[in-house]
Specification:
This protein is mainly alpha-helical and 319 residues long. The protein folds into 3 domains: 96 residues, no CATH class; 82 residues, CBS domain Like, CATH 3.90.1280; 104 residues, no CATH class. 46% of the residues lie in helices and 10% in strands. It is built from 13 helices and 7 strands. A 3-stranded mixed beta sheet has the order 5-6-7. The protein has a two-stranded antiparallel ribbon with strand order 1-4. Helix 12 links the parallel strand 5 and strand 6. The termini are far apart. The C terminus is likely disordered. Keywords: CBS domain, Chloride, Ion transport, Membrane, Repeat, Transmembrane, Transmembrane helix, Transport.
Length: 319
């Protein structure tokens, strides 16, 4: 009843209240129907079981709710009845739909990854190269401040690969959006004539500039890192250089474009990743995978696109 409305009611307490009221009503009715036999239906016990049933059917939790309700009552004789009620509520609810919290995740389009690999990935041979996003926005190890500012303005990505342009796009590392915004706000720029030509072209020589902003200064802004709207980029700063090498994550997690989706999915689940850089055999960045790319809907679309591409190729070969 209260789900989705703009009042601080939540789901936990209303479920407890409605379940307890319904359980107490059932206890009163049983007592009225069988008051001549000498037995007594405790309304409080029925209220507790009703609260557990409604809350368990909504949240689909068993062990944790059993412990919570036992802690609230302080009576261990209700262990077995509570477990039976909660398991029955969970089983009955799963027959009809998912739990309310799971439905909320889908309605909010949150890329939540289930513990098990999607069935479509088990039935079909899908590789990382089929599901990755190929339009990757990359940066050089030493980049123009104006270009970095424009890139952050035009996109909402949380991480950007850093590639060595001189070697054909070899992956050097990654730079987070929070770090880039902090560097721009702190004006960690080098003058246009400070860097050597090799640095400007992106060559990974032994020369390395000392960081203009220390790492602890960047981390001091956690968790309220500056956004790109907080950066005041002057016209004179557009042509200055931003050396990302001291701040880059030079050991990001990567996956080869020929890796299976099962392996990629387990990497995301096991390591809690938000993205994966996809590289070829020469360690050149060819794409990037996020959690949204591994959802069952996205995998289905990728599989359909691959089949359509094969059909087009067959038609062209015949014609």
């Amino acid at each position: 009843v209260v789900y989705g409305i703009a009042v601080p009611s939540g789901l936990f307490v209303p479920s407890l209240l409605s379940g307890a009221a319904f359980g107490r009503l059932c206890g009163h009715l049983l007592h009225k129907l069988d008051h001549t036999s000498g037995t007594f239906a405790d309304s409080g016990t029925y209220a507790l079981m009703g609260a557990a049933a409604v809350l368990g059917g909504m949240a689909r939790m068993t062990i944790s709710l059993t412990v919570i309700l036992l802690e609230a009552t302080g009576d261990m004789q209700y262990v077995l009845p509570l477990m039976l009620v909660l398991m029955s509520a969970r089983f009955t609810g799963n027959v009809f739909n998912e739990g309310l919290y799971d439905i909320h995740i889908h309605l909010k389009h949150i890329p939540f990854m289930e513990p098990e690999v999607p069935p479509i990935a088990e039935r079909h041979e899908i590789v990382a190269g089929q599901v990755m996003s190929t339009k990757v926005k990359c940066l050089r190890p030493v980049e123009r401040a104006g270009l970095v500012y424009q890139l952050l303005k035009e996109s909402s990505h949380g991480t950007f690969p850093i590639v060595d342009a001189a070697s054909g796009g070899t992956l050097y590392g990654t730079a987070s959006r929070a770090m880039l915004c902090t560097l721009l706000q702190r004006r960690a720029f080098g003058s246009p004539d400070v860097l050597e030509e090799d640095d400007i072209n992106g060559s990974l020589g032994p020369r390395r500039l000392s960081p203009l902003v220390q790492w602890d200064t960047i981390e001091r802004a956690y968790p309220r890192y500056p956004t790109i709207d907080d950066v005041d980029m002057r016209e004179s700063d557009q042509n200055c250089w931003l050396d990302l090498r001291p701040y880059a994550n030079t050991a990001p997690y990567t996956v080869n474009e020929t890796a299976s989706i099962q392996r990629t999915y387990r990497l995301f689940r096991t390591l809690g990743l938000r993205f994966l850089c996809v590289v070829n055999h020469n360690n050149q960045v060819v794409g990037i995978i996020t959690r949204k790319d591994l959802l069952p809907e996205a995998l289905t679309n990728s599989l359909l696109r691959g089949r359509n591409a094969h059909v087009v190729d067959d038609i062209r070969s015949v014609s």
